[in-house]
Amino acid sequence: MDKFAKSLIKEAAGRIRSSFSSELVVESKSAANDLVTNIDKETEQFFIKQIKKEFPDQRILGEEGFGDEISHLNGYIWILDPIDGTMNFIHQKKNFAISLGIYKDGVGLLGYIYNVMDDDLISATLGEGAFFNDIRIPLLTDGLLGQAIIGINTSWVLPNKYLEHEGIVKLLQKVRGTRSYGSAAIEIGYVVTGRLDAYMSMRLSPWDIAGGMVIANEVGAIVTTLSNHPINLLVQNTFIVARPVVHSEILDEYVRVK
Ligand code: IPD
Ligand code: CA
Ligand code: CA
Ligand code: CA
């Protein structure tokens, strides 16, 4: 299954890269900045066709809705974001990823984050560790918040309904720096490889995080909601992935969910 998933990801990525030579069809979904392209849709359809051919009984949850309606996590489920970072895909032509997690009865078995333009694959198998291309990723060590670089986006500095503002300001004063890459999967990938110390979001969907959660588990990164609860892969969640200690310090002392 791992070999099949990896070759599918590489093939899909090749198709995405070659799409740059033809014109993109861009549409808005729920809001003007919630974009989708024909390539997001075609990539999801490509995955679904190949997966169903190989594993006809397994279910697929994909962002663009071409997969199955998922109301429970029993059995095998492939949770797919065909392009995570669609805005980057359209505007920057880089910094977007394919994100895939394969779960059985709610347990993450295989996880993948593939940075399409960098040709970097982060992968993990339950109980067998995580890899950056072919190199094993070491376990994350504890970090100090005062030396941390955290991934956040502009929604953290705007008034919002999720978090108390004062704690966020203190957090931003405390950390060494902030970064915003525009792809949740890439940002989770940066945390698991130690290039960011935490990444947080006020709202992510199962397909943004399913692959990354399997990988995070294998390297000792802590993943929870911002209320410090386990993630439910059937709904949208607030989200934090971080090194040990950095995770608890952020949630204990700075982030107050309204
Ligand atoms: C989005 C990206 C973005 C995050 C959004 C996601 P999409 O995914 O991961 O970084 O802030 O919440 O929806 O729509 O590009 O697949
Ligand atoms: Ca989207
Ligand atoms: Ca996404
Ligand atoms: Ca997407």
TrEMBL record:
UniProt keywords, alphabetically: Hydrolase, Magnesium, Metal-binding
Top EC group: hydrolase
Protein's GO biological process: inositol metabolic process; phosphatidylinositol phosphate biosynthetic process; signal transduction
Cofactor(s) listed: Mg(2+)
Reactions the enzyme catalyzes: a myo-inositol phosphate + H2O = myo-inositol + phosphate
EC code(s) of this entry: 3.1.3.25
Binding annotation for Mg(2+): 63, 81, 83-84, 208
Hydrolase keyword on record: yes
Metal-binding in keyword set: yes
One Gene Ontology molecular-function label: metal ion binding
Protein name in UniProt: inositol-phosphate phosphatase
Organism of provenance: Psychrobacillus insolitus
Lineage: Bacteria, Bacillati, Bacillota, Bacilli, Bacillales
